[in-house]
């Protein structure tokens, strides 16, 4: 246990003694709240139209999409860089020299950024909903009511941020270099998963098993996919996917020469 | 105390460290000598648990590195001074290292003062000169006040002042009873720093001996003698079975000490104008021992030099 606390103290100092975590936080806040503000303003503007079909009533999952769609991606980049930049500069060897328990090092890195990221994105998700609602006005913001299952989108964002950070640390530790890691972490959810929609019936069969499709389903966006399980099953599916990748990273890093 | 037993490391078909066994004792500076690519760094990485050995063990105080609790308190190492995040300050770098092993922040200030980096401690480590980086690496090694210290080519690229400083530092650490292992490919450097030598070539341990014994064993003593009665002396020496040859009005005697030559001259009442024992240089001794063990031979240098001069 003392090893974990030592590691946590060391990783906290590492995180706060370079600039990139600060700038990533600024970007996450700007993307999350910026998109929420644009959505709110656009919704209000659309109310001036008489045509009901062009009127835009943002829902909770849409209002937080700047956080879940972009903010969490930036968080993943930060989490991945916390590992790959250590490999890039050889700091990882100083780290493993000071802390030979590599499993604990990777776990603490993932959890530290994951928990901080979860708090940040959870608060941002809540703020995004209220910001969108405030700018949209009472008419356009009629669906922005946090009640019942809608809360799942808010705390789900925090859970997504935590799991995404763990995934990013895992991929970073497996690949050891920034460019490839960031490419995979960005292209996978943004491009590769959506490509399956173009593959006809094969794509439709695969889609319910894509990890990011599942977590988006949990966050309240079903994307027109016919899932085999409910939202909590989808969260569990994403969590298992993340832990398999992270477990593989831990196994490889423990065997590999630093 | 470092105990290495049957240590072997292969990378694909290349054997970097080949069944190496040695013990590094406390209280002296042990030099780890070998040409570039001989396996010095790999051996040190294996000792530090950074690389996984193919076979054999490396124990520090009886335990493998990875099993040490808060290892910086037991082993300090400077393998590569550039293993620092360039955008992190020297102080922050040492702060996280200290925190990782439960050492107080005050210890960071102590080692910064010890290596003379206090003034630049808040500057980015990426902007440091090689000498400053080496000092920062040394500070990191000293952080936990460890009993065992490993330095990999610590004087590489340093100016003469820095070399003398590091050399004195290592000798002082050994004098405090610590175990100090320092690698170098420069024999002259080792001769001035180390008390004991481990010589490695192509991954194999060639010698495990004191510096003096290494030189004596690997080289022949040569005595240069000058005298107005050179012929008498030459005859006497040849009679004793020593090999002699003339060199610019002097005799160069192989296989005899200066004392032997002097006594022989006195016995024959030969006047001497010069009597000088010339030890073959460490480089010569080294080349002789590692002749077959340099991995990357250059072939052109000799002919180029002869042709050019």
What does this 3D model show about the protein?
The complex is a heterodimer of chains A (258) and B (309). Chain A has helices at residues 2-16, 20-46, 60-63, 65-89, 91-98, 102-140, 150-175, 178-195, 200-206, 211-218, 231-255. In chain A, helix 10 (211-218) crosses helix 11 (231-255). Helix content of chain A is 78%, strand content 0%. Chain A has one domain (2-255). The model of chain A has no long low-confidence stretch (mean pLDDT 93). Chain A is globular. Chain A is mostly helical. Chain A contains eleven helices and no strands. Chain B is of the alpha/beta class and 309 residues long. Chain B folds into two domains: 2-210, Rossmann fold; 220-278, Alpha-Beta Plaits (2-Layer Sandwich). Chain B contains eleven helices and 14 strands. Chain B has a six-stranded mixed sheet with strand order 6-7-8-3-9-10, sandwiched between helices. Chain B has a four-stranded antiparallel sheet with strand order 2-1-4-5, with helices on one face. A four-stranded antiparallel sheet of chain B has the order 12-13-11-14, with helices on one face. In chain B, helix 2 (90-100) crosses helix 3, helix 3 (105-115) packs across helix 4 and helix 7 packs across helix 10. The longest helix of chain B has 16 residues, at 160-175. Chain B is elongated, with a radius of gyration of 24 Å. The interface between A and B is medium-sized, with 31 and 35 residues.
């Amino acid at each position: 246990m003392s090893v974990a606390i030592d590691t946590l103290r060391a990783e906290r100092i590492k995180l706060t003694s370079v600039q990139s975590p600060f700038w990533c936080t600024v970007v996450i806040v700007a993307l999350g709240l910026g998109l929420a503000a644009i959505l709110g303003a656009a919704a209000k503007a659309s109310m001036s139209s008489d045509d009901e079909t062009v009127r835009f009533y943002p829902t909770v999952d849409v209002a937080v999409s700047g956080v879940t769609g972009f903010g969490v991606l930036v968080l993943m980049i930060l989490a991945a860089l916390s590992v790959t930049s250590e490999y890039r500069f050889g700091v990882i060897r100083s780290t493993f020299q000071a802390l030979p328990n590599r499993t604990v090092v990777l776990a603490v890195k993932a959890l530290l950024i994951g928990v901080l990221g979860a708090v940040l994105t959870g608060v941002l998700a809540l703020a995004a909903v209220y910001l969108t609602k405030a700018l949209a006005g009472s008419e356009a913001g009629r669906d922005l009511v946090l009640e019942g299952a809608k809360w799942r989108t808010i705390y789900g964002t925090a859970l997504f941020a935590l799991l995404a950070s763990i995934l990013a640390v895992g991929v970073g530790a497996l690949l050891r270099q920034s460019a490839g890691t960031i490419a995979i972490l960005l292209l996978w959810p943004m491009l590769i998963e959506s490509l399956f929609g173009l593959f006809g019936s094969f794509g439709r069969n695969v889609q319910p098993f894509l990890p990011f499709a599942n977590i988006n389903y949990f966050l309240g966006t079903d994307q027109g996919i016919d899932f085999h399980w409910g939202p909590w099953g989808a969260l569990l599916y994403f969590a298992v996917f993340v832990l398999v990748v992270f477990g593989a990273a831990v196994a490889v890093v423990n065997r590999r020469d630093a | 105390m470092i105990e290495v037993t049957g240590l072997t490391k292969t990378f694909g078909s290349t054997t970097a460290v080949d069944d190496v066994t040695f013990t590094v004792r406390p209280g002296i500076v042990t030099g780890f000598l070998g040409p570039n690519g001989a396996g010095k760094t790999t051996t040190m990485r294996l000792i530090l648990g950074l690389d996984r050995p193919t076979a054999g063990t490396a124990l520090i105080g009886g335990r493998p590195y990875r099993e040490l609790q808060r290892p910086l308190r037991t082993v300090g190492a400077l393998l590569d001074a550039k293993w620092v995040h360039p955008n992190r300050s020297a102080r922050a770098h040492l702060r996280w290292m200290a925190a990782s092993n439960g050492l107080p922040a005050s210890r960071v200030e102590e080692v910064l003062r010890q290596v003379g980096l206090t003034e630049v401690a808040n500057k980015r480590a990426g902007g440091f000169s090689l000498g400053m980086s080496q000092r920062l690496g040394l500070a990191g090694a000293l952080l936990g006040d460890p009993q065992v210290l490993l330095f990999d080519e610590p004087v590489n690229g340093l100016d003469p002042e820095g070399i003398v400083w590091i050399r004195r530092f290592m000798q002082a650490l050994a004098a405090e009873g610590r175990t100090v292992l320092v690698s170098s490919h420069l024999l002259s450097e080792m001769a001035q720093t180390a008390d004991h030598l481990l010589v490695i070539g192509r991954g194999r341990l060639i010698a495990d001996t004191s510096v003096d014994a290494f030189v004596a064993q690997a080289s022949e003593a040569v005595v240069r003698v000058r005298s107005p009665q050179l012929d008498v002396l030459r005859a006497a020496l040849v009679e004793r079975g020593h090999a002699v040859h003339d060199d610019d009005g002097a005799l160069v005697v192989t296989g005899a000490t200066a004392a032997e030559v002097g006594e022989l001259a006195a016995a024959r009442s030969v006047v001497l104008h010069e009597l000088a024992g010339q030890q073959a240089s460490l480089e010569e001794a080294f080349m002789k021992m590692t002749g077959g063990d340099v991995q990357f031979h250059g072939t052109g240098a000799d002919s180029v030099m002869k042709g050019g001069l």
